[in-house]
């Protein structure tokens, strides 16, 4: 035997030895809790087997081996991780990204130690089982991109360990339940559903990212959004929200990205501090019914780099501060990398500082307004003619 192969041989012997020792040490612990095995069997049998593609995770579950006894064998159970501390219990179950159809079995609630449940991007249908609200250790729940319908169970307010909830891209309807007890929830995405009612006033104050884009939420934004001191991303676009865009969103201590486009807002409140303390980097209020002059305070928001006010009913002249923030590099504050003002009733001349703006230096659009002259030679005038005099006069008789 060469030196190399004898070393290999010794290594192999050592691994076999380790395996034997570990089996002795963990033998009592590595058995899966029987109720958990039953749940996994129910799950596999509940799924329409025509939807279990060969090579997909569930196709490997044959239960000839103990599902949790996978630490030192190659027969690990795909999609399953077991708890090493409270041994024998399923800790993570993730069978996302398959094409499984069928409904979510109630028996999943028997996986009492589950921390993470991932069923994303399948074809699951039916309602979200109310009894999932009893999984008191659950920290992450992914049900997104399925065909689930019915309401968000109010029992979810019992999931007090929950940190991340993703239910986007389903057919979920009904109103938002009270989720105010989820003191650890920092990420909630319920976008692309059919959720109605108002923006819930009882959302957890721990949220950092909240997205309920593309639903049927109506009414106003509740002013206690101010209590979400950690919120950085808020996307409520593509709903039917109306009333005022509250000033608390413009002097919020952490909000960086606010997207309220495609709603029915008509007013905008000016913050007391004129936006000087705003942390906003990107603000999209396009496709609403906002009226009045362009709010000057938005040019004094130090971090704001992307502003879209397109397709509203703004009028008046373009403030010089806007043009300066887009055209003149700043040392201490952000310039506008994006300034979209098209589709309003802005009039008067193009502000001087913009005239020297080079294509590519910033994304700016002034198309479809009532500007005195906006020739296509300027890149920011392209993408649509100015409105006709008749349209402009009928909107605002004072427009020259
Ligand atoms: C949980 O497991 C027990 C024992 O196996 C069983 O009787 C019960 O029906 C299960 N619960 C659900 C909701 O399936
Ligand atoms: C939620 O908690 C309440 C009170 O703590 C309890 O009555 C209810 O049964 C729980 N629901 C579920 C689904 O666990
Ligand atoms: C959405 O919900 C409304 C009731 O609020 C219902 O009439 C409509 O059919 C639902 N749409 C879809 C696509 O489920
Ligand atoms: C939008 O608001 C206007 C009033 O500003 C109201 O007449 C209209 O019904 C609202 N549309 C929707 C879809 O709520
Ligand atoms: C730049 O900003 C810092 C803190 O935001 C401030 O202390 C400093 O005075 C500013 N400098 C200038 C030149 O404005």
From TrEMBL:
<keyword id="KW-0433">Leucine-rich repeat</keyword>
<keyword id="KW-0472">Membrane</keyword>
<dbReference type="InterPro" id="IPR053213">
    <property type="entry name" value="RLP29"/>
</dbReference>
<keyword id="KW-1133">Transmembrane helix</keyword>
<dbReference type="InterPro" id="IPR032675">
    <property type="entry name" value="LRR_dom_sf"/>
</dbReference>
<keyword id="KW-0325">Glycoprotein</keyword>
<keyword id="KW-0677">Repeat</keyword>
<keyword id="KW-1003">Cell membrane</keyword>
<dbReference type="GO" id="GO:0005886">
    <property type="term" value="C:plasma membrane"/>
</dbReference>
<protein>
    <submittedName>
        <fullName>Leucine-rich repeat family protein</fullName>
    </submittedName>
</protein>
<comment type="similarity">
    <text>Belongs to the RLP family.</text>
</comment>
<dbReference type="InterPro" id="IPR001611">
    <property type="entry name" value="Leu-rich_rpt"/>
</dbReference>
<keyword id="KW-0732">Signal</keyword>
<dbReference type="Pfam" id="PF13855">
    <property type="entry name" value="LRR_8"/>
</dbReference>
<keyword id="KW-0812">Transmembrane</keyword>
<feature type="signal peptide">
    <location>
        <begin position="1"/>
        <end position="27"/>
    </location>
</feature>
<dbReference type="Pfam" id="PF00560">
    <property type="entry name" value="LRR_1"/>
</dbReference>
